Amino acid sequence: MNKYIDHLTIAEYETIQKQLKKRLEEEEKAMKETGNTKEYIELRFILIKIKRIIEKYRK
Q1: What pLDDT, on a 0 to 100 scale, did the predictor assign at position 19?
Q2: Would you say the pTM of this structure is higher than 0.85?
Q3: Separation between Cα atoms, residue 45 and residue 10, nearest integer Å
Q4: What pLDDT does 59 receive?
């Protein structure tokens, strides 16, 4: 049974999380080079939110 959260399944959220983690590594490198931390911090917060959604609805 697929559980939908805002029209996305848990598996889709997990895929998004995996892709964002890859993007986070790129942003971390860019942050070290340029010193701009805004996008890196935004990605970290989004990953935390997605992790909480997955944990909440995985039950």
Answers
A1: 95
A2: no
A3: 18
A4: 73
Amino acid at 27: E
Q: How do the residues of the chain divide into helix, strand and coil, expressed in percent and rounded to 5? A: 80, 5, 15
The rounded average pLDDT for each run of 10 residues, N- to C-terminus, in the chain (59 residues) is 72 94 91 89 93 88
**What's the angle, vertex CA 50, arms to CA 49 and CA 53, rounded to 5?**
90
Task: Report the alpha-carbon distance of residue 50 to residue 56 in Å, rounded.
Answer: 10
Please, are residues 45 and 15 in contact by the beta-carbon 8 Å criterion? no
- Strand pairing report for 4-5 and 8-9: antiparallel
Strand boundaries in the chain, DSSP class E: 4-5, 8-9
47 backbone dihedrals φ, ψ, rounded to 5°: -60, -40
